[in-house]
Specification:
The chain is an alpha+beta fold and 525 residues long. The protein contains 17 helices and 21 strands. Strands 6, 7, 8, 9, 10 and 11 form a six-stranded antiparallel β-sheet that branches. Strands 1-2-3-5-4 form a five-stranded mixed β-sheet. A hairpin with a 4-residue loop joins β9 and β10. The longest helix is centred in the C-terminal third of the chain and has 18 residues. It is globular, with a radius of gyration of 23 Å. The structure holds flavin-adenine dinucleotide. Flavin-adenine dinucleotide (FAD) binds next to β4, α5 and β11. One of its GO terms (molecular function) is cytokinin dehydrogenase activity. Its EC number is 1.5.99.12. Belongs to the oxygen-dependent FAD-linked oxidoreductase family. Monomer.
């Protein structure tokens, strides 16, 4: 489309003057044509992590993807603007990844919510799928698809995240070992590139952009629609928890469970550090636990582990889920008599973290700082990594879960932008663990110094673990410098940088990730 056409109805001069102002502060809401740039809000400057607060100059609430295209076309062709732009989904990042200091935050939730289910869709050779807008929440997609007995296959633990937000990272949970991450479960995307071009892409159409955007940390384009394959939603889920007092048996059994995907639908696990971690992780699990761990023995801290696994129960196919659970449990070596099994609805199972959220909110412990660290660790390094991690943790003070569960390398598409451990990318190892240190900070107990100390420790752990003896990579990464990003992507850096040059040459998009500084082109040069 001609640029001049795009600008019709837009008072380009006003935008240009304001956006190139050295102060870059928009004092009043501005209405120019169909685009509505609004005064900034507290929400646009913050996120779930509560560690970074970067106010943008302005907020765009788009009514259509064309509004986003209009803005990005304008910025990418105005050679002296320095403004950058961040799409903001649900703002559940930790380190300001969806923020844009002095720039423009696009509130993706303003796009009309469109969730259209296609049963046995003709476009996808009989496969059922859903077309959902980029700002839709996964919970909204689930509720809509379940109306016709269908659901996406691959999830995150928490569902109040947007489609665009998780597809920009990876999207992992207990189903990933079986179906791959969410980024491996996408058929097609509508994307507005950093140049403002609106492109429909898929593995066969503009595939460069398709794979760039998946796991692309918002660097290449803004996802306005995703087409996601669907499967039959089970009626019920049989959900088990088994406990361990040694790490080796815990991981051995997790690996056994992921080796039988024909029987098991979900595998996760977590470290049981203290009473609080046992209690808070059990809020959604409706069983009375007889498990009474001895956390301190002979003056030393004892740590336990819990595997969660689940089996879908369609209740139609004559499969006796109880029998399968019995068969599987015979193969496992958990602490005797500590298997707990419950039956819950599929929705309650997938939406389990919402119950934890409600409980934490009621205690004022949801909107608090979250210095989280997430790592992908090759199997060969997991014991070393855990020893190293646990040295930095005081079990009696730690609040929040530490998740540990295995994923399989062959379920990831290496064309996607996400960085994985080298041993996984090269196929040297097939199993990698995700370790999520999901700490909540009670601000009355842990003040600024204490929070900074934790952040510093995390940085050191991430740095040390990325060296070859462990070979880990951060997931939902946060790095202090471009060099560190370069190391993060390793041999994939060149491709990542080339994709940036192709789709967002002025580095307008997602400045909050801190990867590419904004490019300015001086007209007088
Ligand atoms: P935002 O924080 O709004 O944005 C994240 C990044 O994506 C930013 O760079 C932003 O610019 C970009 N972005 C946002 N929307 C778009 C778009 N439409 N197009 C292009 N770029 C876009 N992750 C997992 O994988 N598995 C989990 O189980 C999991 N559980 C979580 C539980 C909680 C309680 C929280 C807070 C986070 C969890 N996460 C999990 C992490 C989560 O997937 C990421 O933080 C994700 O980015 C959040 O989505 P969002 O919509 O809030 O994105």
């Amino acid at each position: 489309m001609e640029i001049s056409l795009l600008y019709s109805g837009v008072n380009a001069l006003i935008v240009l003057v304001i956006l190139s102002s050295p102060y870059k502060i928009i004092q009043k809401p501005i209405d120019f044509g169909s685009l509505n740039l609004l005064q900034t809000t507290d929400t646009a400057s913050t996120d779930f992590g509560r560690l970074q607060f970067n106010p943008p100059a302005s907020v765009l609430k788009p009514k259509t993807p064309e509004d986003i295209s209009l803005l990005l076309s304008f910025l990418s062709s105005s050679s002296f603007s320095q403004v950058s732009v961040s799409a903001r989904g649900a703002g559940h990042s930790i380190h300001g990844q969806a923020q844009a200091l002095d720039g423009i935050v696009i509130e993706m939730s303003s796009l009309p919510l469109e969730i259209k289910v296609h049963e046995n869709g003709e476009m996808e050779r009989g496969l059922s799928y859903v077309d959902a807008s980029g700002g839709a929440l996964w919970i909204e997609v689930l509720k809509e698809t379940m109306k016709v007995g269908l659901a996406p296959r691959s999830w995150t633990d928490y569902l109040y995240l947007t489609i665009g937000g998780t597809l920009s990272n990876g999207g992992i949970s207990g189903q990933t070992f079986k179906h791959g991450p969410q980024i491996a479960n996408v058929l097609e995307l509508d994307v507005v590139t950093g140049k403002g071009e609106m492109v429909t892409c898929s593995p066969t159409k503009s595939s460069d952009l398709f794979y760039a955007v998946l796991g692309g940390l918002g660097q290449f384009g803004i996802i306005t629609r995703a087409r996601i394959p669907l499967q039959q939603a089970p009626k019920k889920v049989r959900w088990q928890r088994v406990f361990y007092d040694d790490f080796e048996s815990f991981t051995k059994d997790q690996e056994l469970l992921i080796s039988i995907p024909e029987l098991v639908d979900y595998v996760e696990g977590f470290v049981v550090l203290n009473e609080q971690s046992l209690h808070s992780s059990s809020i959604a699990f409706p069983a009375h636990l007889e498990f009474k761990p001895e956390f301190v023995k002979n003056g030393r801290f004892n740590v336990y582990y819990c595997i969660e696994f689940a089996i879908h129960d369609n209740q139609l196919e004559g499969i006796h889920v109880e029998k399968i659970v019995k068969e599987i449990s015979r193969m496992l070596s958990y602490m005797q008599s500590h298997l707990y099994s419950v039956e819950v609805s599929y929705l309650d199972f997938l939406n389990r973290v919402r119950m934890e959220e409600k409980s934490l909110r009621s205690k004022g412990l949801w909107e608090v700082p979250h210095p989280w660290l997430n790592m992908f660790v090759p199997r060969s390094g997991i014991s070393k990594f855990m020893d190293f991690l646990m040295e930095s943790i005081s079990p009696n003070e730690f609040e929040g879960p530490i998740l540990v569960y295995p994923l399989l390398s062959d379920k990831w598409n290496i064309n996607a932008s996400v960085a994985l451990p080298r041993a996984i990318e090269t196929g040297k190892e097939r199993v990698m663990y995700v370790v999520g240190v999901l700490r909540s900070i009670n601000p009355t107990v842990c003040k600024m110094d204490c929070l900074n100390k934790i952040l510093h420790e995390h940085q050191q752990i991430a740095q040390a673990a990325s060296r070859p003896h462990i070979g880990a990579r951060q997931y939902l990464a946060h790095h202090p410098s471009r060099i560190a990003w370069h190391e993060h992507f390793g041999s994939k850096w060149t491709r990542f940088a080339e994709r940036k040059a192709q789709f967002d040459p002025l580095h307008i998009l997602a400045p909050g990730q801190g990867i590419f500084p904004r490019v300015t082109v001086d007209l007088q040069e």
